[in-house]
Write a structure and sequence with these properties.
This protein is an alpha+beta fold. The chain has helices spanning about 1-25, 70, 200-220, 230-250, 260-290, 290-320; strands spanning about 25-40, 45-60, 75, 80-90, 95-105, 120-125, 135-140, 145, 155-170, 185-195. The chain contains 6 helices and 10 strands; from the N terminus they run αββαββββββββαααα.
Length: about 325
Amino acid sequence: MLIHAVCLGLAALLLISSAAGVQAQPAKVVVGSYVTKVQDISFKDNKYALDFYLWFRWKPEGPLADYKPLDSFELVNGKIDSKSSIVEKKIGDLNYASVRVAATISETWDLKAFPFDSHRLRVNLEDSAHVASELVFVPDASNSRLGDELDLAGWTLSNFVGEVTHKVYKSNYGDTSLPSDARSEYSRYSMSMGMERESFGTAWKLLSTVLAATAVAFVAFMVKPSDLDPRFGLGVGALFAVSASAFIVSSSVPDSGVMTVADEVHMVAIGFIFLSLLQSALALKLEVSGREAQAIRLDHWSLAVFPMLFFGWAAWMIGKTIL
């Protein structure tokens, strides 16, 4: 009898521990998305506008018995501007909910290669009502994708990926009833897509002025040093043109300590133009001191070396960035 009672007790313990293990498993919610529009790209303001459909499928049981995903989901790195086209229904023993979302997404752009840059747009979504121990997302990979009518001027969108990760927040959010080292973990659904420039037209528009102006500065080497107005006027005019071009480029990107390719090209161009003005001053000094032949040789040498060094460096810098 004693052995029988012990066996029954062990069996009961196994059943209880098994039930506890089952209850400890978080509920799964399938989530997917379909992107219909990307627009209003703003490098200056670190944001863009996104329009997409979002849907959820789940079993309404346990912690999800009264689950309302359309009310509790939030964009971690964006702001929801509006929700529309809401659908809620049953599919067999599953609940289904979908919504069209218009949102403004914050993005920290990597602009080191600007204006030959490409980007990876990412949108992070979490459920504010359930931690990861209660709910985990499962990506609906087979149905999530980019829309076939996306049209973002100057850019091509591709390589859509929907994935799920866990995000840990190390804070008690000021709740003194919790320990100061409290932490919470949430399931995060992320959708991302590649954004690449269709062509280098924008790059050439931004850089054509600086390249042409620097070339004009080098034309001064073909003018007699004693002809002061054209000789120095070409370099000074080119300096103002490159400065204006640099101002236009800087207005397209946010203020930061990052040096873009465009910034480097402008700074090096200003340096070469300044050196060309110094060369003109030296050639003038040689000419007025009676060494006109040396001044001519200096101009011939400069006319070959200055363009070769500047345009060679620019080609190397741009080629390195593109490749």
